[in-house]
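We emphasize that the prediction below concerns an isolated chain of 285 residues; any contacts that depend on oligomerization or on bound cofactors are therefore not represented. The input was used exactly as deposited, without trimming of termini.
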Amino acid sequence: MSGSHDDPSAELLTELAGKLDYKTYLRLEQLLSAQRPLASPPHHDELLFIVQHQTSELWFKLVLHELRGAIEALQRMDARACCKILARVSHIQNQLMNQWSVLATLTPSEYVQFRHVLGPASGVQSYQNRMIEFILGNKDPRMLAVFDHDPVVLAALKAVFEAPTLYDEYLRFLARSGMSIPAAVLERDVTKPHTPHPEIVATLKKVYDEPVIYWNAYEMAEKLVDLDEAYALWRYRHVKVVSRVIGNKRGTGGTAGVAYLEKIVSNVFFPELWDVRTVIEQAPP
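Result of the prediction step, given as a token string:
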């Protein structure tokens, strides 16, 4: 006769009255009641559109949590913790990129049936994604105006906008490690986009020429490039999905749609980490 260990349900907890269960811990009643399609008559595919964007916002929330942790790790000179966090963020970005394949099953004929219910609502109004962009270095003050109607969100965005970026903190980490970073870069106006500097390229070349000696800086540099690349791939996938669903129509938030997305798809957050690759050469025998 089989023992109870062969029955996967033999020891299931079933007396859960008054105890913390899965639904309560995850607040599933609130989470699963947040999908409220507006199309009348109802359209089957509107739920897909809502779930796609709501799950993206949940991932954005985690990305922000992790990026703040990475910055704190840099400030306390904890390279290992920072590298682990940055690797996780890259995985999240890959998850977000793969998620576009689900929305790509929405055809133009289907989307046009409920697109009108969005009104002026648009992904460009995602304040969490805007915070991510600010933290990674895309400081565009014009984007703050999108949130003038929401003082609480605007204040939170301004706080991120006026704070050093992840790359600023990496360069400060290098400086505290005894590496040469120009004072003008360390003391720059962090509300402006970072301007590439040849001295930073020279410092990074030293890191890449002698990775064993500068392992922490080297490993973090590669993790930052991973993140930059993952974000670029996510943007590119976004462009292609929007293109196949709406063609060259204007975006609901007033952007130029695909043309706007194509313009930003080639942006890089950490320019010298890409530039240094051009100057790296094989060491002489």
